[in-house]
Specification:
By secondary structure, the chain is mainly beta. Helices cover 5% and strands 49% of the residues. The strands form 4 sheets. It has a 9-stranded antiparallel beta sheet. Strands 15, 19, 22, 23, 24, 26, 27, 29 and 30 form a 9-stranded antiparallel beta sheet that branches.
Length: 435
């Protein structure tokens, strides 16, 4: 069983596990390395399906799981070895060495630790010596404890590719409450990423709506992007399957903008600007959605950087078979690099305003906090959201302890920031095909 409670005793006997009188009341969990371990030091070794294999002594493989209270834990590593190996394990401030031998999978005891508070436990594995080509092919940690009523959480199975999604970490969202009985044409917001909370793979999505999203990404050590995408009404993960009459069409783009298509999570039109945005700076985002009266809606995005102090057109897309203004306005934070799901990221989302079709701006101060399937299943609990200062915030990754309850509702305080002063009728590239 993976990540589920097993009480050693009668149940253990039925499961084929050894039983003796001293084992009564001891619980056991299996933590799969495939969904809960990362290469956190040195170069990553070659992966194996459902686990880890490493051959370099500088490589550190770290496996994470969460306990809901202080606990005494015994840790073993399930692995197989070609030849003989000696490895080092570190957890809760204690270091152990273990000798591994055997080409058949076996559980090798690592040691016992005391966890002083609820939260995540990190177990680091590193090779010391080996006679074979790799230190080990490790599939699972096996955790046992006599702590009463202990609950342990991890990514417990690979159904629907959950090892991959779990290693990416939980995605979290803010769904904004809009004024009732008003039709919204524009949405404005500001986003600040705190220093050091922007690892590779982060997507800080500022302005989301029912048919697309607009935000900033960290795509590599030296590349960052401003990204604006609109989904096609045709449901597919392959953009080549979209019929011609349901394709999202680019009508206009700003200087330096690249236009293309995207797939894998729905498909549609994509635009992005390679731009060196920085943590610590505040960026501004503006979207417009307006039907063209011909059964289509035009979606347009602008970006404002403190470095230039002006609005820059990103792109304007025509979405067919759509006749609506802005709906489903939201923000989110996700990680798209499963290698970096162990590193924390955080964004501050603030000063949201929506402008209705009559030209009136409305402050947006209420939001509902939600999470994806990995969060809702409790496979990863390192997520949080709420209010910090005058802004909302989202936080995920890093295996921190302070989880915030999903579906919580938050209200950011009223502050002195006025409604946006934007000459919307003078923006560059004004709404190609509309007026």
């Amino acid at each position: 069983m993976r990540c589920w409670l097993v009480v050693l005793g009668v149940a253990a006997g039925l499961a084929g596990m050894p039983v003796d009188g001293a084992d009564q009341g001891i619980s056991q969990w299996t933590v799969p390395m495939g969904g809960n371990a990362f290469s956190t030091g040195g170069e990553a070794g070659p992966g194996v399906r459902g686990g880890w294999r490493w051959d370099r002594p500088e490589t550190v493989i770290s496996c994470f799981f969460r306990v809901d209270r202080p606990a005494d834990l015994q840790i073993a590593l399930r692995a197989l070895v070609q030849g003989e190996s000696r490895i080092r394990a570190t957890a809760a401030g204690k270091t152990f060495t273990a000798d591994l031998k055997g080409a058949e999978p076996a559980a090798f005891p690592l040691g016992s630790i005391r966890v002083e508070r609820a939260g995540y436990v990190r177990v680091d594995l590193q090779g010391i010596a080996k006679t074979g080509s790799v230190f080990a092919e490790a599939s699972d940690l096996e955790i046992t404890s006599a702590t009463p009523e202990l609950m342990l959480s991890c990514v417990k199975d690979n159904e629907a590719n959950r090892f991959y999604w779990g290693r990416r970490g939980p995605s979290v969202h803010l769904s904004f409450r809009m004024p009732e009985a008003r039709t919204m044409e524009w949405f404005y917001s500001e986003l600040t990423v705190p220093d050091g909370k922007d690892p590779i793979g982060s997507f800080f999505m500022a302005n989301g709506f029912g048919e697309g999203y607009f935000g900033i990404q960290v795509n590599g050590p030296t590349e960052r992007r401003i990204l604006f995408s609109v989904w096609s009404p045709f449901r597919t993960d392959n953009p080549r399957d979209i019929p011609e009459d349901q394709r999202v069409v680019a009508l206009a783009k700003g200087e330096g903008i690249r236009i293309g298509e995207f797939g894998n999570e729905g498909s549609g039109g994509q635009s992005f600007l390679v731009y060196p945005w920085r943590s610590g700076d505040t960026y501004r985002f503006l979207n417009r959605a307006k039907p063209d009266g011909k059964g289509n809606t035009i979606y347009t995005a602008w970006f404002h950087s403190p470095a230039t102090e002006e609005w820059q057109l990103i792109a304007s897309f025509r979405r067919p078979k759509t006749d609506k203004h802005l709906t489903g306005i939201h923000s989110f934070l996700e990680n798209f690099s499963d290698r970096n799901g162990w590193i924390e990221r955080q964004g501050h989302y603030g000063n949201q305003w929506a402008r209705d079709i009559d030209g009136k701006w409305h402050p947006i101060r209420e939001a509902r906090f939600t999470g994806d399937d990995i969060a809702r299943r409790g496979y990863r609990l390192d997520y949080a959201g709420g209010v910090v200062g005058n802004d909302f915030f989202l936080r995920n990754g890093g295996f921190f302890a302070d989880t915030v309850k999903l579906d919580s509702r938050f209200t950011r305080p009223s502050d002195e920031r006025p409604e946006p002063e934007i000459a919307v009728d003078k923006l560059d590239g004004v709404f190609a095909g509309l007026e």
